């Protein structure tokens, strides 16, 4: 219960942003594989599916898949060799579904499930609070007043910062793609989930509210941090970079998965 919460990283808008960026950056060869598996369903639609199924009463959705949206990396733990729980986590689930996508004997239905999870999980691992520190459920326990509405710090990073822009996912994806340089694409073209996890953990350690960007509070239900314009100003650039990186990494990862033989 002290792990990061399995809430859907970025919320639906964030996941669709990352998936749109990915779809715009994969190779034609990879895009053909995606269409072969998903038909007319595009990556932005598939990216939110693992969260949308959480109301599905099937045991797979209610029990088995819940831990696959996050990892727990306590402060000071090396992302290269941290222990995984018996029920698995986002990194082990990514490995599992990658094997399905590469299995020539897997059914189209199984590959569709796997592809939706891969797109979703890569996005999840770029939301810093989906790499939990093991003490506050991925900052779900850190209570805030976000522009005078009660919530928690995890939600601020899932949805709050993104919603302040008041853009559709396609508008936001286009804006971020226009701001992404070729040099950044080259630099971010990385298929190693441990590197993404380490980046999220390093960022996570910095994003808890401070006296400089909060108007008081201690993060408890009785005394929440009071966050508004200053926190939004301080952290929107980092949030946007993680969305950009997630989109590029989804593309890189899928190009690797479907690499030409």
If you had to describe this structure to a student in words, what would you say it looks like?
By secondary structure, this protein is mainly alpha-helical. The chain has a single domain, classed as P1 Nuclease. 54% of the residues lie in helices and 6% in strands. The protein is built from twelve helices and five strands. It has helices at 11-25, 28-38, 43-47, 49-52, 59-64, 90-101, 108-126, 153-163, 169-179, 182-188, 193-204, 229-257; strands at residues 71-72, 131-132, 143-146, 149-152, 225-227. The strands form two sheets. The chain has a three-stranded mixed sheet with strand order 4-3-5. The protein has a two-stranded parallel sheet with strand order 1-2. Helix 6 (90-101) packs antiparallel against helix 7. It is globular and about 55 Å long. The termini are far apart.
Give the tags:
P1 Nuclease; mainly alpha; 12 helices
Low-confidence stretches: 1-8
User: Main sheet?
Assistant: 3 strands, mixed
Total helical elements: 12
β content, as a range? 5-15%
CATH hierarchy, class: Mainly Alpha
Cross-sheet strand order for the largest sheet: 4-3-5
Query: Averaged pLDDT, please?
Result: 93
């Amino acid at each position: 219960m002290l792990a990061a919460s399995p809430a859907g990283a970025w919320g639906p808008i964030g996941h669709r942003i990352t998936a749109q960026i990915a779809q715009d950056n994969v190779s034609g060869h990879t895009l053909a594989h995606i269409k072969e598996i998903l038909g007319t369903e595009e990556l932005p639609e598939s990216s939110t599916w693992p969260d949308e199924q959480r109301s599905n009463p099937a045991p797979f959705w209610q029990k088995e898949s819940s831990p696959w949206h996050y990892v727990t990396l306590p402060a000071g733990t090396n992302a290269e060799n941290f222990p995984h729980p018996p029920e698995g986590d986002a990194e082990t689930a990514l490995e599992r579904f990658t094997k399905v996508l590469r299995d020539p004997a897997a059914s189209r239905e199984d590959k569709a499930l796997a592809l939706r999870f891969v797109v979703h999980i890569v996005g999840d691992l770029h939301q810093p609070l989906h790499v939990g520190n093991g003490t506050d459920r991925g900052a779900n326990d850190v209570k805030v007043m976000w522009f005078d509405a009660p919530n928690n710090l995890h939600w601020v990073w899932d949805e709050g910062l993104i919603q302040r822009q008041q853009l559709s996912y396609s508008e936001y994806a286009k804006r971020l793609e226009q701001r992404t340089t070729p040099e950044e694409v080259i630099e971010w073209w990385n298929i190693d989930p441990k590197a993404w996890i380490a980046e999220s953990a390093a960022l996570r350690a910095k994003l808890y509210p401070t006296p400089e960007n909060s108007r008081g509070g201690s993060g408890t239900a009785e005394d929440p941090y009071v966050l508004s314009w200053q926190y939004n100003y301080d952290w929107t650039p980092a949030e946007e970079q993680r969305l950009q990186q997630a989109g590029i990494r989804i593309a890189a990862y899928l190009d690797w998965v479907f690499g030409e033989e």
